[in-house]
Every structure is written in C-alpha cells, then in structure tokens.
Amino acid sequence: MTNPERDPQETVASTGDVTCGIEVLTPRDVPLGGPRAMSVRRTLPQRGRSLIGAWCFVDHYGPDEVADSGGMSVAPHPHTGLQTVSWLFEGEIEHRDSAGNHAMVRPGEVNLMTAGQGISHSEVSTADTTALHGVQLWVALPDASRHVAPGFAHHAPDLVSGDGWTGRVFLGSLLGATSPVSTYTPLLGAELHLDAGARLDLEVDDSFELGFLIDRGVLQVDECEVKQDELAYVAPGRSTVTVTAGDQPVRVVVLGGPPFGEQIVMWWNFVGRTHEEVVAFREEWQDQVVGISDGRQVRAGRFGIVVDEPLPPIPAPALPNARLRSRG
C-alpha cells in the first residue's frame, strides 16, 4: 500500500538505549484520499517511535463496508529499500507488481513483496469483496540488502492452537510454529485469537523488540492494559510475555525483531539513508510517469512497469521545503 498522505512527513529512525518496559502507542487516522475513501489507523511510525525491530510502518484498517468506502484502489506506485507485508482478516485484494507477480491477498495468507532496489505495484480490492479488514506492514531492509533485486513470496500458515487460543505465524517463529518465508533481518509476525478471559505465556527471543496491535477486544500485556486499535511496544529483555484477554475475545497481531541498529530516512514510499538518495528516487519515479501523453503508461526505469494494470500511476508528492535529515 502506498503512503496516502498528501504531504507525507519525513521519518527519521535512529537507535538508542531503551529501558525495558511497555509503551502504548495510539493510532492516528489517515484517509486514503477522496470523500468516500477508506481510512487507515496508523500506529507506526510516530514522532516518539519509528521502528519495532525492522518493522517501520503499521496501517490497520476496517472492518469497512466497500459500499460506503469504495474499497481499496491503490494505483501503481514505487517503493525502495523495504518489504511490504499484507495480512487480511476479511476481503480480497488483487496485487500486481513490476517484477511480474500477480497474486491475491486473502485472509490467513501472507504476501511479502521485496522492493529492494526498486519496484512498483498496485493493490485493488476485488469486485466480490463487500468488506475489507486487515493490516498493511512495511519492513526496512538493512544496508547490506537494500539494493537486492525485487521479489515476492506467498505463504498460508497452518493454524496452531491451545487452551483458549489459536494463531497463525506468518513470519519467524512463535508457539512452536515457524514460517518458511525468508527475511533479511530476524522478524516475528503472527495473528493470535484469545477467548474471553484466556491467558497465554508467549516464549519470545529476549533480544527482540515486540509490538502487540489490538484488532479486537482489550488485552493485558504483562502488566499493561491495551485497548482496541492501540499498539503496545515491549522493549527487549523479556523471554516470556504473558497476554490475557479481557471479558471479550481478542484478536492481536504480534510483531517483533531485534533493534534495527541503522538509521533510515523514510519519505512517501521510499526508505533511504540520505536526503540526496530519497530525492534521486523521487526524480527517477517522476521521470517514469510524468509527461506520458495518455497518463496511463509508465516508461521503463528503476521501478519497472506494472503490466495489465488500467489504473494510471500515482505521481510523487512535492518534497518538503526542509532538507530530509538523518540523526545519529
């Protein structure tokens, strides 16, 4: 999914010492554009926290009735230096990208697209979809891997279950299940369901930062209560995290990874390292899409061409007046 903000802010991520504890992040609403647009609840990045492991972008949307919102119609747009992770609870989305991948995003099945040195893609909800509900996630690629060739992976994880809970692990390992999808840094991604009042002790890597995004219900994460749509950040240092559902069933997306350890500059759909690099990415995309006579074609270039996609590509927004900065 593209970052739909009309004036996207620069996001600078830096690492530092974090006291072991739990922080609750509240979302902000971001419209995808237009008066009937569906909106997303964005919990990452925020001014106070830009990353959880390598996870650098968390959008949570729905349940939205397509008759009211118009559904998802995201035209071809570019990415660099990241991976997109699509995970649905309800609905169906058609994915096309310039590396030649054409796939459906369905509930309980993960689609991971590697942008690497550059890719463009589109995401459009299918005609049969009446409601959309899910998360769209981005992962920052480390410096050693951020210029890899673009790629794509799909996986339908098996259901794991226990007393009062079920889950699907789409990246990394949790609850005895391991995803076969490879990533460039250690990552954890899972969906968990807890019955009302259920308690679950999660054995986790104590080097990982963790995020618990609450889709439904109220969840106690160790000593901290986390409400619907909030994201609980758990600092490294815990080998076990206990989650307990309130008096209603809970659905939660669990994210994690070791602290990223690198600085990034994230603006619009690009993850880079310097102002000059991001400016160059933007110029290359604009050169591919601006000035085409019929407005629906894309020139060959870094970001490729999404074939068989009738939607016109999305031009890049204007850069901010200030220099994009990286902080130590």
Helix run count: 2
Low-pLDDT segments, ≥5 res: 12-20
DSSP helix fraction: under 10%
Total beta-strand segments: 27
Query: Between the first and last Cα atoms, what is the distance in angstroms?
Result: 29 Å
Q: Structural class given helices, strands, pairing?
A: mainly beta
Largest sheet: 7 strands, antiparallel
Radius of gyration: 19 Å
Give helix and strand order, one letter per element, not per position: EEEEEHEEEEEEEEEEEEEEEEEEEEEEH
Major β-sheet strand ordering: 2-23-20-25-18-15-14
Average pLDDT rating: 90
Beta-strand proportion = 35-45%
Give the overall shape: globular
Chain-wise SSE layout:
Blueprint: E1 11-13, E2 22-25, E3 28-31, E4 39-44, E5 55-65, H1 66-69, E6 73-79, E7 82-90, E8 93-97, E9 102-105, E10 110-114, E11 119-125, E12 131-140, E13 151-155, E14 160-162, E15 165-171, E16 173-174, E17 177-178, E18 188-194, E19 199-203, E20 209-216, E21 219-221, E22 224-226, E23 231-234, E24 240-245, E25 250-257, E26 264-267, E27 270-272, H2 275-289
Antiparallel strand pairs: 1-26, 2-23, 3-4, 4-5, 5-12, 6-11, 7-10, 7-12, 8-9, 8-11, 10-13, 14-15, 15-18, 16-17, 18-25, 19-24, 20-23, 20-25, 21-22, 21-24, 26-27
